[in-house]
Amino acid sequence: MATTTLLDVVTNTPAETEQAGERFGSGLRQGDMLLLEGDLGAGKTTFVRGVARGAGSSAHIASPTFQLVRVYPGRVQLAHVDLYRLEASAGLVELGLEELLDQGAVVVEWGNRLDAPEAGLLSIEHLGGEVILVIDTSSARSAVALLRPDGTVAAEEVHDSGPGFDLPACFRALAKNQALTKVAVAVGPGSFTGLRVGVSFGLGLAMGYAIPIVALKTLHLQAARSDDPVIALAEAGRGRVYHLAPGAEPGVAEPGALPDNLPVVGWLRPSTEAALLAAGRRLKPELELRSAGAAASLMLETASEVAYGSLRLEYMHGFSARV
What we know:
Elements: H1 14-25, E1 33-37, H2 44-54, E2 69-72, E3 78-82, E4 90-91, H3 92-95, H4 97-103, E5 105-109, E6 114-115, E7 120-123, E8 129-136, E9 141-147, E10 153-160, H5 167-174, E11 178-186, H6 192-209, E12 213-216, H7 218-223, E13 231-237, E14 240-244, E15 251-253, E16 264-265, H8 270-278, H9 292-300, E17 305-306, E18 312-316, E19 319-322
Parallel strand pairs: 1-5, 1-7, 3-5, 4-6, 8-11, 11-12, 13-16
Antiparallel strand pairs: 2-3, 8-9, 9-10, 12-17, 13-14, 14-15, 18-19
Helix pairs in contact: 1-2
């Protein structure tokens, strides 16, 4: 296995972190493996984005958290591995990485969970900075993201909603050493219980830190995840969905009553997704969508701040309630 000497580097912006990665990637060879360690939001994926460019790839780089590995062709094939969801340490053979090393180079996020003593190790530490907190707990999945002042996503996590999702713990893990400047929270329509969890927590943070809060409508947030026209959906209960088509007002309907001329986007229960598919509706794949944090960043370009006492939930068709 080839080895590379890694030097201490301090970067001040995501672009500088990418440039550092690009310099490293320009020297990658077949058989090189780099393990990255660092907290959530430290900049590991940003660094890998530069590494891929240095290795000759022009592909869009995103964290492969939900599929373990993504492979990018280039001057040197680069395998991007993310072991965040790996509960125990594993070896190269167990994860099938030996074959990838024969084909090119491998970069592993959360590399401290991989037993590969001959690989290079790079620790990435975020030294702090100002961020906007984004919270969406209105759907079957919940998202928490941190946005940098320039609107780029510093860190993001998505979890299944429900009693097992610990929003305060997720926030603490993401926001370490960060200074909050604003809170943006999804206000529905969607699950009443989920909305109360997210909005109450976000409002409490905003008031406690004396910072502004912005209300993001759930359906508009889901629509902003796609560059192409879509019908945005959210759970409405009893087998129905809230829906928003381009140029139309929000509504509520059974899956079979939705327009069929556009793909649909939304974080839905498996039973609702099955009903949509049975009705002939096409769900746009997650890999073709931007993250909730990136979508919120677009909405924040025009969204207005609201007074603490004016923040309202939209959890039933035609009905709103104050927190």
